[in-house]
Fold this sequence. Notes:
One of its GO terms (cellular component) is plasma membrane. GO terms for molecular function: transmembrane transporter activity. This is Tol-Pal system protein TolR. By secondary structure, the protein is an alpha/beta fold. The protein has helices at residues 2-5, 19-35, 86-99, 115-127; strands at 62-66, 72-75, 82-84, 105-109, 133-135. 32% of the residues lie in helices and 14% in strands.
Amino acid sequence: MALSSRRVKRKLKAEINVVPYIDVMLVLLIIFMVTAPMMNSNVDVNLPQANAKSLQDKKHPVIVSVNADGSLGLTMDGADKQTVDEAGMKARVAAIVKQNPDVNVLVAGDKNGKYDGVYKVLADLQQAGVAKVGLMSQPDQGGAAHGH
């Protein structure tokens, strides 16, 4: 009789049951995956208008043109293009950069020209003390890419 009236004590588990948390996480993950593509709502903002000039309008850039035959042209301060040789181009650009270090220097290479001509001009401009050089391009008029 004594044995039947006595209760057997079980040891309590001190572990957290994480299965319900995993189920909730998976349900939330599915909900976010389904609703994320629908969140592409654009907000229209009417920005104020101002008559301020662009920061790029400071000065006319210096443009070094590399023609298809390898000859060089130099355009400064919006004037007409002048044909120059390598040494003359380096001397003129170095003088302009010395006078105004913030001047924009652009290289315009003919698409039918050789890469070697543009590469030489970039090296010459670096020797002339130009810190940053931009490469000019034109937007594609035909709309289709021509790959060879």
